[in-house]
């Protein structure tokens, strides 16, 4: 188990991952529209607390070298189920 949160925070993210909120997430978010201006193609980026992997997927689509770390086990598993290509890019841990 890699959860590095207090109990209530870990429980919140477990519920978020399992109760359908993750499945209802939009494929991008407002800040994603700035990624192309903020990062050049080939930029190496580490997303700490990567959640669903949404930002990593957006960054990779921009030809960035993006990886992530997700400290909540339930979120990590759900992210890999939702976005299998992120397998080698999204690690568990804190």
How do you describe this structure in short?
The protein is of the alpha/beta class. The chain contains four helices and three strands.
Give a verbal description of the structure.
With 94 residues, the chain is α/β, with parallel strands linked by helices. The protein has one domain (7-92): Rossmann fold, CATH 3.40.50.150. Helices cover 36% and strands 15% of the residues. The protein contains four helices and three strands. Helix 1 (7-18) runs parallel beside helix 4 (73-82). The longest helix is centred in the N-terminal third of the chain and has 12 residues, at 7-18.
Keyphrases for this structure?
3 strands, 3-stranded parallel beta sheet, alpha/beta, 94 residues, Rossmann fold
**Structural class of the helices, strands and pairings?**
alpha/beta
Shape: globular
Unreliable residue stretches: none
Fraction of residues in H or I helices: 25-40%
What is the third-level CATH name, the topology?
A: Rossmann fold
Structurally, how many domains make up the residues? 1
Query: What is the CATH architecture annotation?
Result: 3-Layer(aba) Sandwich
CATH level-1 class? Alpha Beta
Q: What is the N-to-C succession of helices and strands?
A: HHEHEHE
Mean pLDDT: 88
Task: Report the C-alpha radius of gyration, rounded.
Answer: 13 Å
Please list the strands of the largest sheet in the order they lie side by side. 1-2-3
What share of residues are in beta strands? 5-15%
CATH superfamily: Vaccinia Virus protein VP39
Largest sheet at a glance? 3 strands, parallel
Distance, first to last CA: 11 Å
Number of distinct beta strands: 3
What is the number of helical segments per DSSP (H or I, 4+ residues)?
4
């Amino acid at each position: 188990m890699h959860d590095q949160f207090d109990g209530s925070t870990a429980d919140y993210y477990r519920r978020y991952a399992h109760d359908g909120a993750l499945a209802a997430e939009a494929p991008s978010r407002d800040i994603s529209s700035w990624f192309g201006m903020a990062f050049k193609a080939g930029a190496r980026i580490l997303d700490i607390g990567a959640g669903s992997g949404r930002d990593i997927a957006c960054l990779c689509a921009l030809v960035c070298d993006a990886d992530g770390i997700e400290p909540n086990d339930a979120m990590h598993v759900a992210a890999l189920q939702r976005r299998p290509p992120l397998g080698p890019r999204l690690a568990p841990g804190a």
